Amino acid sequence: MNFSRGLILCSFLFFQFSFAQSISGTISDAKGNRLSGATIRITPTNSSIISDTKGEFLFSDIKTGNYNLTVNYLGYKTVSQPIKVDNGNNTFNFILEEDLLYLNNVIVTGNFAPKTLLASAATVSVVSSKAINNRIPRGTADLLSEVPGTFVDASAGEVFTRVYSRGISASAEDDMGWYYASLQEDGLPVSLVQHSYYGPDLFHRVDITTERVEAVTGGSSAITALNAPGGIYNFISQGVHEKLSGKIRLGSNLQGNDNNLYKVEGTIGGTLGNNWYFNFGGHYRRDQGIRDTDFTFGKGGQIKYNLIKKTKKGSIKFYGKVLSDNTNRYTGVAATNWEEPQAAFGQDFNSTALLMPAYNGTIPDGRFISENKTNSFDPSQGVKVQDISFGLDINQELGNNWSIHNNGKFSNKIANWQTSISNAFVSLSNPLAYFITGSPFPIGQVVFKEATSGQELARVDNSGILAGESFQYIGEGTLPNDAIMGTSAWYKDNTSKEFIDQLTIRKQLEKHDINFGVALGLANTETFTQGTFGFVTYEPNPRMLQVTLENPNVPIEALSDANGLSNYGGLFFVNARADVSQFAAFASDRFILNDKLEFDIGLRWETINHDGIKDRYAPFITPGGIDGDATTSYDNSVNTPTGEQDTFDFNYKYLSYSLGINYSLSDKMSLFTRFSRGNKAPELNYYFNNFSNIEIPNKGEIQKINQAELGLKWNAQNFSLQTTAFWSQLSDIGSSNFEFDEDTNTVFYSPVQFNTSTTIGLEWEAAYSLSTNLNFSFGGTIQKAEATNWKVYDAAGSVATDDDTILDYSGNNLPFNPTSMFNLGTAYDNNKFNTFLKWQFMGKREGNVANAFQLDSYSIFNFGAGYSITKNLEANLLITNLFNSEGLANFFGANSFGASANGVTKEFIQDNPDASFVVVPVLPRASMVQLSYSF
């Protein structure tokens, strides 16, 4: 019996030795660097592993026979090699070529099922971690200027930005700049809802935890994103690390007039054993601002994490984010000379911020007057943002070529604005400078004192202004530019609780890849907005003014409080709540006709419900105002709820579809075409901004987006190209202007007009490797965007409608859409030293739909250099806007309180050739030194 057992054991060991082998090897790039994190898959077993920190891999217990090894690594071309496993040497080493445009890499954005970019019938651009690290952190939008076809206006800073593609832009205004696009993190929207001063960029920061960005400029986004037919910008976090590794980066940035930014970033990831993996990272920064303010412009940071469990047939990922941050945004700068704008009134395009200075004020909360509640107001707070989110992402194979993917998250968001809006010139001869205070008759001797010191700066006699005469100074004191700033202390409190989930079920057949599922979004949001006038000097570094009316033989009347605030809560009032529910059902089929030709068709049915309440309001009138003191007029007309409410409960339903065809000319070249019909339901600003103290009679219009594209992708040995010709049409565009009524001292929006725009163009990105160390890149867009049918409501500066007109600008160029924009760059890297230089060109744009004012083209050069001090330690220098270019990114119209860009016509310029106007310059030069330690 012992002999028999021994024989069996020997036979088993022989069998194992003969039929169970190990496969090992290394993964390297063309420079000899070992690549950690490469995915190696062996078929037909479909087992996969990830290369370790030394770039090595090992498969155990593989039976002898013929197999295929496929190696994937982000940013490198996929390698597939047949192998034979026997009793000999089963070592296989791979050298990967850099995939300059990621054409051979698998993308997950804009498709229901992952596929390589080359095989996708869509235009998808990838911003690599290297490109992210080569930019000074100026915000989410600024980074996306790397994406062809995408227009970016990041002149306000890291928030309050505008991003859109292919002329789908009309409702993407300054305070809702992501109207058509979906800003995503790991496949789900950052925020479900948008309205004025509440956009997704408030809740997103770019740091070292981002692995890459995948951008879909239109097309398939109509069927793959919630209410976002204009594009998807998906920021993908770091994934599985087989070995413990991480990075710490310290940065010091010198910007503007010697203003500093300090930032510390870190990330760590690895294995916890038993197929559990983790990533943890984030950043903290303190930013004095690139323009001059008397307060810290931004401070705070975020923590992100994920915990991944790899199962036999899939993975489970727990993830989350805690963001707590203060930031702000820059407003416009005054200019003169319509043909060649120059900064006016002593201001500077590079350094002037023209924001209220810091102070600690209190303003009565109009919602709770009877309870004597107040809101603190300090412009140095900017916008205080908090976002706590957590989610669960499940990928699982079910057998028989069925699989399921479910990604869901919950978030709790808070955004509290304490900043100023508008910074217009208001002459001391303008009655608005006094009557905006809420005083019944502010005529006589008006005294202006510096609020912080109490020093009298000027005393004026305004007795003649009602007769059209100029004011007169009394004594020697004067105010800068004989004016005050037309501005408002803008207090806005927003909260939103959101749940977003998407379930996708996939069935793979021999010639079909079928995906179907549902997406759900629920949000409960509240918004409160209150506008209070502020007396501020009109000069590059504004000061708050305490203002009094001091006429002989009568008590002194305070036109402002001690901080310079006046007309408490009287300029603007919105108090509203809304529940938003979105549901979508989708299905797609990728039909493979043969090894060269395939097409995909997708349908998406979506329904969105907006259910909310909006308070009506009126000034709280009582003798002596809120404090009962007749000598303080600044609290005489606080807007408060009247008790009446306007409700809205509207449902939007629509069907979107997309058809794409992809033809493989070879294994390195493909041709594709796609037609898409998308829809855009209104955002909550439709109810919040319009219908002031009137019933909300109708729901908003669903905008319709038609897009066609024809593209070529080519991935040669040293050259890669992706180019797409596109046509897009946007119709049923509701547009309205932000207006100010000087007679009632109130802000209002003009009646909505519905318009159509059409854009045709060509976008491309190309890269060429001259050698393993030197490469060049060139990407850009040329386009013609037309306001096909376009009308603007002219309210003639008042709420009264008897003198209103409608202006027709059909056939004009669509504003803020350049005819050309491109990036041209070169980079050198020899492992020890690296450097790059990139030129960004922004073409000429119309400043408004009247085509009365043009924003000239400008160029921005970015430079960087890095040196590896040791294997783990690296130093970098980054310079943005190397030559301090003074381009203009935006146009706000005439330099008067409540003016808008559309108020400037060709006739206005002819009649006012010397008038000043408001523009927003691009951000000036900034340089950062970074020290990074990797382990």
- Number of domains in the coordinates? 2
What would the CATH topology of the largest domain be?
Maltoporin, Chain A
Helical/strand content category: mainly beta
Which CATH architecture of the largest domain would you pick?
Beta Barrel
Query: Average pLDDT value?
Result: 92
- Top-tier CATH class of the largest domain: Mainly Beta
Strand content: over 45%
- Percent of residues in helices comes to under 10%
Number of helices: 7
The major sheet is characterized as: 22 strands, antiparallel, barrel
- Total beta strand runs: 57
- Estimate the global geometry from the Cα principal axes: elongated
CATH superfamily grouping of the largest domain:
TonB-dependent receptor, beta-barrel domain
Computed Rg: 30 Å
- Measured distance between first and last alpha carbons: 56 Å
Descriptors:
single chain; 935 residues; mainly beta; Immunoglobulin-like; Maltoporin, Chain A; 22-stranded antiparallel β-barrel; 5-stranded mixed β-sheet; transmembrane beta strand
Q: What's this, in brief?
A:
The protein has two domains: 75 residues, Carboxypeptidase-like, regulatory domain (Immunoglobulin-like, Sandwich), CATH 2.60.40.1120; 637 residues, TonB-dependent receptor, beta-barrel domain (Maltoporin, Chain A), CATH 2.40.170.
General description of the model:
This protein folds into two domains: 20-94, Immunoglobulin-like, CATH 2.60.40.1120; 298-934, Beta Barrel (Maltoporin, Chain A), CATH 2.40.170.20. 5% of the residues lie in helices and 54% in strands. The chain has seven helices and 57 strands. The model is unreliable at 7-18 (pLDDT under 50).
